[in-house]
Design a protein that fits this description.
It is a single chain. This protein has 16 helices and three strands. The chain is an all-alpha fold. The protein has a three-stranded antiparallel beta sheet. Strand 1 and strand 2 form a beta hairpin. Keywords: Membrane, Transmembrane, Transmembrane helix. Belongs to the amino acid/polyamine transporter 2 family. It is found in: Membrane.
């Protein structure tokens, strides 16, 4: 395998900040990965365009399918990743959020954030497996037991995620991103052309959408905070950005990639969420691809299937790579094609997939699972650490009024994250318990069709 392209001379001289040294020899050194040679995987070969696609695909996939139901609870109106790039340049030895915990809070902080990081991504993989099973049920008209479909989804995700570098995974993302975007565009067109949503009751009078701009249906606190958790989940690809920037050839291009990716993701979320909710109102489906009726649902899931598989692939790869690096960091096995390397790597991907499979079958309802992930784990990854990272790097800088405003904002982000973690988790748990009590939810490890609108 070829080594990373040689950066321009001025970038070679700036190696202390990027953590990546290049030379004319077929060997390069990275602060995280160690020696990168032609005899093993090149972990530092991700370009700008590939970075943008990966950033977008970590978010557009599962998150976009939950946005319209969020609007149904919150209304349309209520519907800081920059610090990751700067923090990585200042601390090139940091590979993931656990490294942040080590710098900020020592060994205890490292362990806590490492556990939360792994749990977050494995739960996201579980939601990806669940979404694939929903798609297979929809396309096949429930052609097999749902538990069988989750097994198939877990095996596919495990196999694809075993590709060892994000640069190679990018080729999957090039297929998955257009497929999911095409599917959501089709469902937007379909709900705009249909006379009423598929789930709406039959009435003698023409159906009118019951969408509302703010606080629809007198939403309870638990319903509202659960919907906010869906929004957190939709944008919670942030924890994966550390892994992405760590494999970039030129980490200084991170901010440019971030602006392109996040601008595009936000535009897609707003457009899809508003259109589908406007035409479907309270009869919007979750996932949103089921909002256009049976035929459209089958077509959309058929087209979106590569995108759902790629989302599961990326989200499986990130925690598996995290575990691999923590097990083999500092040894030659990390970047060499040795039996120890392959055994460890495949053990990581298989373990992640098995645990995610259990999660997908234990919480077999899409909206409940993504809400719980966003509340309990997404906030702990996307709010509190980001505020603390900025404070860590900027506390001793010139303390003018601009600095004070930024400190206040960083503190607000930390406090908001704590509030959302506690209140969001409470709201999600209450709703899950109530839904099981009233018989609205499917039981764990069920063979029942999960491709309905609930």
């Amino acid at each position: 395998m070829a080594v990373a392209e040689q950066p321009p001379k001025h970038q070679q001289e700036d190696k202390s900040e990027t953590g990546f040294q290049s030379s004319q020899q077929p060997t390069s050194h990275d602060v995280v990965f160690g020696e990168i040679t032609e005899d093993g995987p090149n972990y530092r070969n991700l370009g700008l365009v590939g970075t943008v696609v990966l950033m977008m695909k970590t978010q557009i996939g599962l998150g976009v399918l939950a946005i319209p139901t969020t609007f149904d609870t919150l209304g349309i109106v209520p519907g800081s990743n920059y610090v990751i790039g700067t923090f990585k340049l200042n601390h090139p030895e940091v590979y993931s959020i656990d490294g942040v915990g080590s710098l900020l809070f020592g060994a205890i902080g490292r362990r806590i954030l490492a556990v939360i990081f792994c749990l977050y991504w494995i739960f996201v993989v579980g939601s990806g497996i669940l979404s694939i099973s929903i798609g297979l049920n929809a396309v096949s008209s429930h052609g097999a037991c749902t538990a069988v479909f989750t097994v198939i989804a877990a095996i596919i995700g495990c196999a694809c995620s075993s590709v060892r570098t994000l640069e190679k995974i990018t080729w999957f993302a090039w297929i998955g991103l257009p497929s999911i975007l095409t599917a959501v565009i089709i469902v937007c067109i379909a709900v705009g052309l249909q006379s009423k949503p598929a789930a709406a009751p039959t009435t003698p009078t023409p159906w009118t959408s019951d969408y509302q701009i703010t606080t629809p249906h007198s939403s309870s606190f638990t319903a509202a905070i659960t919907a906010v958790s869906n929004l957190v989940f939709a944008f919670s690809g942030t924890p994966g950005f550390f892994a992405i920037v760590s494999e970039m050839r030129q980490p200084r291009q991170y901010t440019r990639a971030l602006l392109i990716a996040q601008g595009s993701v936000t535009a897609v979320y707003i457009a899809v969420g508003c259109v589908v909710y406007y035409f479907c109102g309270s009869y919007v489906a979750s996932p949103a691809l089921g909002s256009g009726g049976l035929l459209i649902k089958q077509v959309c899931y058929g087209i979106a299937m590569p995108g759902l598989v790629v989302t599961t692939t990326i989200c499986s790869h990130i925690p598996a790579k995290f575990i691999l690096i923590n097990l083999l960091r500092g040894t030659p096995h990390l970047t060499a094609n040795t039996p120890t390397h392959w055994l460890t790597w495949l053990s990581c991907t298989v373990s992640v997939s098995i645990i995610a499979f259990v999660i997908a079958n234990t919480i077999p309802v899409f909206d409940a699972l993504v809400s719980l992930i966003g509340a309990l784990l997404g906030t702990l990854m996307c709010f509190q650490p980001m505020g603390c990272m900025w404070l860590f790097d900027n506390w001793n800088k010139s303390r003018g009024w601009v600095w004070k405003l930024k400190v206040a904002w960083a503190g607000f982000v930390v406090i908001l994250g704590c509030f959302l973690t506690v209140s969001g988790t409470y709201g999600c748990v209450v709703q899950i318990i109530d839904s099981y009590r009233t018989g609205e939810r499917r039981v764990a490890f069920s063979c029942a069709d999960n491709s309905g609108t609930a």
